[in-house]
Design a protein that fits this description.
It comes from Pyrodinium bahamense. Its main location: membrane. This protein has no helices and twelve strands. With 204 residues, the chain is mostly beta strands.
Length: 204
């Protein structure tokens, strides 16, 4: 008997962006667990939805690309406000899973920053991890650039208590970063000496 498993929906993107900037929310890392890992994304279909989380938000401008792996949102498509984007990933046979992603759209023009980590969002990570590389990308277009002279810094933030988030440690930027065009940043600092087991941390 060939028993199919549900697909795993995975979403990454910027948690903060400007309505003056293009941004993307990417579900291409989703997997059909009934197929080899080398066939990621094969035979999966995608359906995106948008939900307003406060009175300022308005999803009505979002009309295209709702069936793509990557949801591309052109600048000024949405108003400033809080949004939840959800994607339902469906495999052959109809089994599906939904993942969601929250984003704040602000009126400024600082480009959205998307983080890439070696673990999944909210994953449990051993404090003894030694080889960790975290990168961030800030794509720039003509209407969305960081102010001239901007400084970029890495921080580790304790987000265990969302009402009392604390900066824990400034982290070093890896040699060669930021990139020449100030769009890619990388750090390999992990800081196990000041991590508290069972706490939740975020890179910023």
């Amino acid at each position: 008997v060939n028993v199919r498993a549900r697909p795993v929906a995975s979403v990454v993107g910027p948690h903060y962006a400007s309505r003056q900037c293009d941004f993307e929310i990417d579900a291409s890392g989703s997997r059909d667990m009934s197929r080899p890992a080398t066939e990621e994304g094969a035979d999966l279909s995608f359906q995106w939805s948008c939900t307003e989380r406060n009175a300022l938000a308005d999803c009505s401008g979002l009309t295209g690309g709702l069936n793509e792996q990557v949801l591309s949102v052109p600048r000024r498509t949405l108003k400033g406000g809080s949004y939840t984007f959800a994607v339902t990933v469906t495999a052959v046979g109809g089994l599906s899973q939904t993942a969601s992603f929250e984003i704040e759209l602000e009126p400024g023009t600082v480009p959205p920053v998307t983080f890439t980590t070696p673990w999944k969002h909210h994953a449990l990570v051993p404090t003894t991890s030694q080889s960790v590389v975290v990168s961030a990308s800030a794509p720039v277009n003509s209407g969305c650039q960081a102010p001239v002279g901007s400084e970029w810094q890495w921080w580790l933030v304790d987000v265990t208590d969302v009402s009392d988030q604390r900066l824990v440690q400034q982290l070093g930027m890896d040699p060669g970063f930021p990139s020449e065009d100030d769009t890619v940043f990388q750090t390999s600092e992990f800081g196990p000496d000041f991590l508290i087991p069972s706490h939740t941390y975020a890179y910023a």
